[in-house]
Amino acid sequence: MVEVSSWGMLGSWEHEVLALSDRHHVVHQLKSSRSGIAHGMGRSYGDVCLNPGGVLWKTTELDRFISLDESTGRLVCEAGVLLRDIQRLVIPRGWILPVTPGTQLVTVGGAIANDVHGKNHHMFSTFGDHVRGIILVRTDGTIIECGPDFQTEWFSATVGGLGLTGVITEAEIQLRKVSGPWLDAETLPYANLNEFFQLANASETEWEHTVSWIDCLSGKNARGIFMRANPINLINHPEPKSHKRTIRFVPPVSLVNHLTLRPFNAAYFNFKKRQAGKRIVHYEPFFYPLDNLLEWNRMYGPHGFYQYQSVVPLKVGNDAVQAMLREIKKTGEGSFLAVLKTFGDRQSVGMMSFPRQGVTMALDFPNQGDKTLKLFASLDAIVREAGGRIYLAKDARMSRDLFETGYPRLNEFLHYRDLGISSAMSRRLIGS
Amino acid sequence: MTNNKKRIVIIGATSAIAEHCARFWVDDAAVDMTLVGRDISKIERVAQDLRVRSPQSVIHVLESKFTDSIAIRQLVDRVIAGGIVNIVLIAHGTLPDQIECQTDLSANQEALIVNGISPMLFAEAFVGHMQKANSGTLAIIGSVAGDRGRRSNYVYGAAKGLVTRYAQGLQHRLASTDVKIVLIKPGPTDTPMTMHLKQQGSHLANVEDVSRLIVKAINQGKSVVYAPTKWTLIMMVVRHLPKFIFDKLDI
């Protein structure tokens, strides 16, 4: 048995880890194993990728490319291939992943199972929208090939399906043409939420990538930094040097606390404010700002941390975000990483996908037990009232009731569940 | 058809360490690479991946028996007939169950042949050609287990110890030539072969890091390389521990 924790490090639990390394052998491995759940890089924050006391099917050794058609941008690969390795392979050849999350250290299978989104949701929807086909292996020995044009119901259940419909072994992805790794980026400070929404609204048609950092403790008027970018064609621009740093150990207390948070946020705001204006940036630091700080999750100390990410409809977005920030400020808890972004009017392909039109806010909170959970209860009430939902890839504690309200296609999804698959999350939220 | 791409041959190309070494090589430059393994469908899967990574490289696949000296000789002659080889990496092996080897002599024999004799036969078959051409680097994957026999894995260790002595002999034989023999001694590495060690809670090295070190050592033509490098120090201590202390250790 091996102790495994997820990215939030809220605890570590014993698992039997079974590596899948041969895509044609997976069907036999699943059939002869106890109930388990696929586990890639373990970058999900909560319990969606855990199965305490049970089996984890580790997919990171299913990391082979199968084919790349450079004329059409169709890539076929195994499910354990990292988005980083795809980007590094295809960008020099004039292609790019159309959608990636804030880290590229995730597997293709994980990106599909959580139907991840990026800074360009308003233009390119979610990761699943660019998947042309997948091979799904079920624990009863059946192998289902599905995609947006064939076996569509299986596809729709599996994209965003939290690994509960089977184990994805292969995927075909439609890449997008790109002229190089460079982005024309602009940084704009904003002084309150109204300004944020104006900027977001004004940027959606002209800017491919938009995102903002918000100072969640700054007071009544939540100030922040809005960033937007478009790909740019630059030849012979010098590549940035990569400076990898690692947080080598878990500090005895969280480095994110009352003493550090407010000064950090103020300093960060002022630092970024000075950088306001246009710059040319490489895609890696822009898309994946934390990937060079390895094991950054350790800075939250031995009790780990939660990420709280919700989406609420636009028409109540301003009020709901304002209300959530008020609750957070009341407790004095808060976050280094506080992201605010609008999602566009794009219907996700997955039955259980998180993104929907609206505004999404993501915040990290060090785990301080009941105090933190109490704050989440008040945030949950705001999300529920606003008709929003919580992101399952980030969740570790949402109530079943809020889950069912937020994901209205749950009953439809349950028809496609593989009963030989179970995770800590499925048991918490679905009961098995 | 001749080309000026570096010619690389990997024996046991489906092993995780070998596969990652191959990825580093094709990432670095277009190469002419021959992958040899026991199961053609598995080798083809590795080859397919490398072809996507490096469309300019030429990747051949060959199936072979690993314990038949005649088959080994024929395979090596066939590879050499294609031209001078720049790098040969001999990477195959299995991690046998020590207790099974103690009770089942055929398992013991199999472990010694696959991990000890087979790599030596491949090495011998290649090295004659390389000596004749007076060029190339032959790298063999041994193990830290070959440095001192230990109760927990001495059958595997004995086979790898054989590889160590053999490589030393080849290094001595070829000292005055331009042929380089590189002996690689990986510590426990996170691969499908060591899955059960991980279940027992062992800390295993990352296969990509180990492979990066191996490729670097081969490019530099080092005689012996421990991967990760910390094993140089650990094994120096293990080799020199007095017997009365060593015997008390449960390792």
Task: Spell out the key features of this protein.
heterodimer; A: alpha+beta; Uridine Diphospho-n-acetylenolpyruvylglucosamine Reductase, domain 3; Alpha-Beta Plaits; five-stranded antiparallel β-sheet; 21 strands; 26% helix; B: 251 residues; alpha/beta; Rossmann fold; 51% helix
Describe this structure in words.
The complex is a heterodimer of chains A (about 425) and B (about 250). Chain A contains 13 helices and 21 strands. Chain A has about 425 residues and is α+β, with helices and mostly antiparallel strands. Chain A has an eight-stranded antiparallel sheet with strand order 16-12-14-13-19-20-18-21. In chain A, helix 9 runs antiparallel to helix 10. The model of chain A has no long low-confidence stretch (mean pLDDT about 95). Chain B has a seven-stranded parallel sheet with strand order 3-2-1-4-5-6-7, sandwiched between helices. The model of chain B has no long low-confidence stretch (mean pLDDT about 90). Chain B is built from ten helices and seven strands. Chain B has a single domain, classed as NAD(P)-binding Rossmann-like Domain (Rossmann fold, 3-Layer(aba) Sandwich). Chain B is about 50% helix and about 15% strand. Chain B is of the alpha/beta class. Chain A: Keywords: FAD, Flavoprotein. Chain A: Pfam families: FAD_binding_4. Chain A: This is FAD linked oxidase domain protein.
